[in-house]
């Protein structure tokens, strides 16, 4: 039960990291007339991906804490 939680948290962190990079790249290149973007939507995307990453870090931290408790109980 703990291993899937950690795997899910890592996958979520990777997904949010890619989304963050994609939105940040669009913001950095927003002056390019060949690639029109909506900087406001991309800024919101950066913030959403940041919060998603933080939520997945919290899941990984709790799973680690639970694993530590389980090991302590079995020792």
Description:
With 75 residues, the chain is an all-alpha fold. It has one domain. 84% of the residues lie in helices and 0% in strands. The chain has 2 helices and no strands. The longest helix has 36 residues, at 39-74. The protein is rod-shaped and about 65 Å long. The mean pLDDT is 92.
Total domain units: 1
3D shape? rod-shaped
Q: What is the total tally of β strands?
A: 0
Radius of gyration: 18 Å
N- and C-termini, Cα separation:
19 Å
What are the salient characteristics of this protein?
single chain, 75 residues, mainly alpha, 0% strand
Brief synopsis:
The protein has one domain (2-74). Helices cover 84% and strands 0% of the residues.
SSE inventory with pairings:
Elements: H1 2-28, H2 39-74
Helix pairs in contact: 1-2
């Amino acid at each position: 039960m703990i291993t899937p939680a950690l795997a899910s948290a890592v996958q979520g962190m990777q997904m949010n990291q890619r989304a963050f990079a994609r939105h940040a790249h669009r913001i950095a290149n927003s002056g390019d007339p060949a690639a029109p973007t909506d900087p406001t939507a991309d800024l919101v995307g950066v913030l959403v991906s940041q919060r998603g990453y933080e939520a997945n870090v919290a899941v990984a931290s709790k799973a680690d804490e639970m694993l530590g408790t389980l090991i302590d109980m079995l020792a």
